[in-house]
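Please predict the structure of the following assembly.
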Amino acid sequence: MFHSLEKQIAAAFHAHIQIRYGIDLPVAAEQPRQSEFGEIAIPAAFQLARHLKQAPKRIAAEIVAEIGPVEGVAAMEVAGNGYINVRLDRGAYAEALLRGEGEEAAETGEKIIVEHTNINPNKAAHIGHLRNAALGDTFVRMLRARGNRVEVQNYIDNTGVQVADVVAGFHYLDHKGPAEVQTLIDDATVRFDYYCWDLYAKISGYYKDHPESLAWRAETLHAIEAGEGELAELAHLVADTVVAAHLATMQRLDVEYDVLPRESEILHLHFWSAAFDLLKERKAIYFETEGKNAGCWVMPGLSEEGKVIVRSDGTVVYTGKDIAYQLWKFGLLGKDFYYRPWSSYSDGRVVWVSTDEPTESGQHFGHGSRVYNVIDSRQSYLQDVVVAGLRALGYNEQADRSIHFNYEMVALSPRCCADLGIPLSEEDRKRPYVEVSGRKGLGVKADDLIDTLIARALEEVVSRHPENSEEENRRAAGQIAIAALRYFLLKYTRNTVIAFDLQEALSFEGDTGPYLQYSAVRARNILRKLEERGEEIPDFTSELNREALARQLQWEDFWQLLLGASKADSAIESAVSAGEPAHVAKYAFQLAQAFSNFYQKYPVIHEARREKKVFLLWMTDFFRRQLARTAGILGIQVPEYM
RNA sequence: GCGCCCGUAGCUCAGUUGGAUAGAGCGUCUGGCUACGAACCAGAAGGCCGGGUGUUCGAGUCACCCCGGGCGCACCA
């Protein structure tokens, strides 16, 4: 609502300035620093001052005097050195909100692809992976909330070095074949992804102590690529099982996917050779004959030596496959995968996985017009290579629409390592944070963290609601734990390194997910309590007219809460353009804060005057809906009670 | 060496793309529960926005130079 009105008012100024001064000025609408200054500030006079060579203050006064009535605006005034402060017509604004106007979502035809999660399927997910998924999933929800069509892809690198290492661990260190590994998978007392976590650390350590054994890795990679033999079979078994574990972990956070494109199909369906032909044909890469890259196909430009795409033994590096994948996402490769169902969600939606065998599914993916790759900042260089590849092929437009949605890593605070019993070197203890390492098995497993959070939340819920059933309390605790976790991962802006601290993540007070939930739960408790007392929730539209609304909204407290709650769409819009899910979190928190204050100050149910009571109930209901919606975009549900 | 990121209250972080008197949470201190359940609210203390020079009506925000920290720059991903 606010968003569309703001645009409308800016447009009125734009039109006036165009006619009056003959200047096509892009008019910005800002939020005044203080609420007493009104709802919208127009700084246009500052820009005009340059063109007109007059004082901004004078120009602002002239515009205010001449612009005439603007719809939805009650008053305008000049302030500061030349701001035009706009005051909205409160009654009209509230009436429009009451009738549910101005909430249209502009559906755009283009399809946006968001790729996120992308965990190597060789071990359990850790806290860093959760940041990726929470950011990606929330961004998807933000886009969908404003009407965009979005396809969520989770790329599975099931033929890479990391999977190969775990396979080598099973085969060479543990001497286990596919049958034994299958037994392990079927054993309910073993968490297979956790087992692989340890095995990966074990073989990484072994490689370090016995460099000659790296031959195992090469042999395993070859076997996987050939797709034959026991090692290849093991690779499939390991990768598929771990992918299922990852999806189950992500499901706990309400993170869902549309399709799982796999590297094995990139290879078997010859996506790479198609891309390779294109790259050679358009001279995007060249065959190096001398120097340290002799015998390799190299992409020039990004670094002094260029980036090797095809090794001297003829195998392609990951980035090469990624170029093929990126081309496919835009529909530029002239090839597609086949698809079969991988699993389905409780609402029946199917997650599809790529396959190399023709199927009757009729499914098609890709052909996006814009692609967001949610990948941490350490891989910026590789992402630049991919984009440079598109450019070298002449796909400049697609290169511009390839967005590396980067974010900083999640590290561990030294205190956290101490809490978790992770030994640190003297040097590490002095650092601000310690990087997690899969190879060293150093990190916080996602499911362990979620379990801890749920246990904590359950303690709190049970202490407050011993009368409720265990099932109900578990349900609420689960929702609270997820809210705490998702909010914790989202409240930091993307380029902030999160030094993970268990005690902070476990907090349910202050700037946290549970605070949002608590605020929404309290709003609903008011409405529920009213009905329990035998009163009915009024029909707001028939009991409140414009005049009544205007009367009540003379109270600044009420107006500010209503205004704030009506800005959800505006907040989402600016968060999308800034690419910052954290902005949505911040908005939700401020909104919850405003309501907590309102809740404390105004006893809604005990209000004696009818008009005011109905108005307060409507405010409560409006706030509740807006906060629930915003929390939903963060992937946070509002529990029945807490 | 080259490239990118960061430095804001005791701690952890925001800061609407250059705007009005720099904000929040935690922590500390003070006050508020017979309940629309305090996982809350109100108030207080706490700042050379790392340092310097510039750009202009105006800089936490932009440019350049220092200082301090992080991450990249593989025939790993």
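DSSP finds 27 helices and 16 strands in chain A. The CA atoms of residues 51 and 174 of chain A lie 77 Å apart.
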